[in-house]
Amino acid sequence: MWSTFKIKSLGEYHDLYVASDVLLLADVFENFRKICLTNYELDPAHLITSPCLAWQACLKMSQQLLELFANINMHLFIEKGIRGGISTICKKYARTNNRYLENYDPSSPSKYIIYLDANNLYGWAMSQALPYGDFK
Fold first, then answer.
1. Alpha carbons 81 and 1: distance in angstroms, whole number
2. pLDDT means per 10 residues in the chain (136 residues)?
């Protein structure tokens, strides 16, 4: 590559890399825009994220009309329920006391350890039916 493009320094290599990277990404994005415009008549360049594009495409293709909340309390109720981020509980050591173990002590409170590995909660939630009207 250095000889093909007659590169003499790391700076020239950097500039070539950045230029080719930008041009390739622009080509891919323009192709993606063309596909979205053809199939959904939506331009991803006018939307902030891919989920935003997916939501707009869903509404457009389903032709579902969303009912607006009738009062501020409905909005506040939904807003209070919004959660996000990674949930983790990290405890290095835990001692159990349950009747299924040999060292069970019936005079002490029962203690259990549970391991949960919940994957794709966002994906699952997004596959469920969403409310669109008749809010009370």
1. 55
2. 90 95 97 97 92 90 88 89 68 86 94 81 82 78
